[in-house]
Amino acid sequence: MEIIPSIANYFGITIDELFGYQSDREEKIKAILAKADEAFDKTGGVIGKDKGDFTECVAMLRAAAEEFPNEPRIMVKLADNLNFLGWQINGAKARTEEGSDYINDDAAYNAQNVYWQEALRIYEKLWKMDIPADCRNAAIFSMSMLYGMMGNHEKAIAIAKEQQSVILCREVLLARAAEGEEMDRYQGEGIIDLLSQLKTIITNSVISKNSTQTTAYGRQVLLSLVNLYETIFSDGRCGREHKDISFLYQKLANYEARYGGDMNRAIGYFDKMFEHHKEYCRICDTKEYRYSAPLVSKVTVPRERHSFTPVSENIWEGVMSELPEELCAELRMIEKYRECF
């Protein structure tokens, strides 16, 4: 027994592989990960009360983490589901100090979230391990977000500053590294991925300050961003980005009804949100999606690489709860939107 590790090292394999256990181990891990993905898919990406049972999934993944200690894929899933459970059980709060323009996280409340505390401990452990890039990136992203929301901004900023600049990111470099049709494909993939990140940072910039969230300027910024999406996907085939566009129109409908006062315009925004949502649902089960607008025409999205997250059956409950009652009353009278209520 004492020389077994030496034999495994000699052949460059693990002890499990030496005894033929690796295949069984891998199959069991894949089954656990698939079950966790299935539990998340049932939520349709909507993380809230009554949108899925993350408690059961967390229990399953905790048991898996004991059976397969230091397995990064299990650890990432466990930390992610603890993150989801923290949102589901406690949620997050924000606050605005009197006289301040900024809408900040309520760190005193958020820091008490025991699920987020546990998730951060796992992410920290992952961060220090020699793990695949996708696992590391997932851990870094979630760590930075949670530390910021829980008030440890120094830690969140330090983590962010250790990462590569967008100037040196993979998407930008690949677009310059290739030529011909391969270059065209990399450029298209870069446009799609970077556009999604641009949407995130611009939207957060608008909604984090009263001076932009409640003003015509903020709505014009969001509308300009939508126009950029619609210009790039000029033929209306937006793929996964139908979901991004739907989200932006949802915000526009909400803010126009609340702060703009033009109910017809708000209904128009809602209608565009509704149409993009329906198209996204239509293509959700697509095995392989091909874009066709000029700048992205070489991009094909295999399902296993970038899945289309299924939409929750309860999505309209969350959407309508954000809209002012005046707008909801108008929408209730339109037959087209009956499924929303």
Number of strands: 4
- Strand percentage lies at under 5%
Which of globular, elongated, flat, extended, rod-shaped describes the shape?
Answer: globular
Most strands sheet: 2 strands, antiparallel
- H/E element order: HHHHHEEHHHHHHHHHHEEHH
Helix % is: 55-70%
The helix/strand class is mainly alpha
Low-confidence parts? none
Distance between the termini: 66 Å
Radius of gyration: 23 Å
Number of helical regions: 17
Indicate the mean pLDDT: 90
Sheet with the most strands: spatial strand order: 1-2
Question: What tags apply to this protein structure?
Answer:
mainly alpha, about 350 residues, 4 strands
What's the SSE blueprint?
Blueprint: H1 4-11, H2 15-18, H3 22-41, H4 54-67, H5 72-89, E1 94-95, E2 104-105, H6 107-110, H7 114-127, H8 133-149, H9 153-161, H10 170-177, H11 180-207, H12 210-213, H13 216-232, H14 241-260, H15 263-283, E3 288-290, E4 300-302, H16 315-322, H17 325-332
Antiparallel strand pairs: 1-2, 3-4
